[in-house]
Amino acid sequence: MTPSGDQLEDAVVSHIEDRPISSILIIIAMQAEALPLVNKFQLTEELSMLPKGVPWVCYRGIYKNLNINLIWPGKDLSLGVDSVGTVSASLVTYASIQALKPDLIINAGTAGGFKAKGASVGDVFLASACAFHDRRIPIPVFDMYGIGLRQAFSSPNLLKELNLKVGKLSTGDSLDMSPQDEASIVANDATIKDMEGAAVAYVADLLKVPAIFVKAVTDIVDGEKPTAEEFLQNLVAVTAALDQAVTQVLDFINGKCLSQL
Amino acid sequence: MTPSGDQLEDAVVSHIEDRPISSILIIIAMQAEALPLVNKFQLTEELSMLPKGVPWVCYRGIYKNLNINLIWPGKDLSLGVDSVGTVSASLVTYASIQALKPDLIINAGTAGGFKAKGASVGDVFLASACAFHDRRIPIPVFDMYGIGLRQAFSSPNLLKELNLKVGKLSTGDSLDMSPQDEASIVANDATIKDMEGAAVAYVADLLKVPAIFVKAVTDIVDGEKPTAEEFLQNLVAVTAALDQAVTQVLDFINGKCLSQL
């Protein structure tokens, strides 16, 4: 961040820090993670906000004093699977920030966890920071750009109130973990691993929107079960825990300013 | 692509196939690759098109009968290095397609080449197809989504006229190549390797804009020199070859319809 960038960010944040949070953008990767929240908050589909032809899905509604906007990148048009990963996540984050100018982004989703760092299946984490583990650019300064470390918006009161676990999140476009990924994840000091968080953080930082990351653990990366199998086995149950946590987060946010989080 | 998607694409392409190409969007990753083209075509900076606060750079101008728009993601605001890789490339591609509705995208840049597949330093390739090599998702169908294979817009006359080399392009966010990347690059049957192409192809396909990929080889991936060193050593000279090839491509495109490429 340049000094002028810092000043801009300070100005934007201070402007909205003194009034209650009004507009929330929830960014999710998979339909199975999103639909329970659509039902719970009785959101309705919004078709006009996004460009024509893309599979992105947007639902909106009001919960207590909050305008909730829930976005996910939808099913790949040719293959029919959820458009997971950093490219889709960054595009929907960009487009929905431009359209909605939200006060706060919540990136909610499932993640792999490291038992060596204290994670168990079903745990819900609030990430303290995000970084990439699969962008290795061994040229000075470019190496740091590749890692792309960004702090989540500081929310100590939220963390204390909800009794969530806290840990660093590492993001990559593969569900598995190569030895190179593992070395980078260790270097990132990560407790949880996903496929979108650091990309959402990048775009949120670019456009100066505060972002928090709520991630529920579906599988233990350093455990004995194969990741894909464990992920699919636990997805439904863990999504329920995620949705409960997101609801608690929204209940806590309701009526508060950014500086009270 | 769903049947309705195919029909939409056919309709869009046939609509513009019968008139000369007018608007070209050139997407580049690095300032060092872009500035020689800015100078050559005497382009002028356009500040109004892109959102405030982002480091993205847009230059515009007229060359022969073509409206040239040259975009690159600019220097990272906190680190000062070029914003390389798939996330930045997908964001600038998305934003500039939305703003400009170009007839054709040219993704121009440098790449690593495989000598085992016939590539040498200084070669300029027209990619026949793009795919990712660092998005491993070992769940049926998700695996294909991760690879994200997309054909370049077919341009047999351009290829013949300019005597460019042709080969498949594989994209990943690392400058180096892990054994897992290498296995995926071999599976992708790739001759050249870059950090943006498949992301540009993804967004171009999403928004139904034809795209071609002009890539000049700065380093031999399966050679003896370290990639980073060879890349930096050859960047300036190879960029000159790239700019010459882009000029030849524009000269060929001028006055032609998409169907004549």
From TrEMBL, chains A, B:
A GO term for molecular function:
methylthioadenosine nucleosidase activity
Superkingdom of origin: Eukaryota
What are the BP-aspect GO terms? L-methionine salvage from methylthioadenosine; nucleoside metabolic process
Query: Per its UniProt record, what CDD domains does this chain match?
Result: MTAN
Q: Where are the transmembrane segments?
A: none
Q: Which PANTHER family match?
A: 5'-METHYLTHIOADENOSINE NUCLEOSIDASE, 5'-METHYLTHIOADENOSINE/S-ADENOSYLHOMOCYSTEINE NUCLEOSIDASE 1
- Matches recorded under Pfam families: PNP_UDP_1
Annotated Nucleoside phosphorylase domain ranges read 24-250
State the protein's name: 5'-methylthioadenosine nucleosidase-like
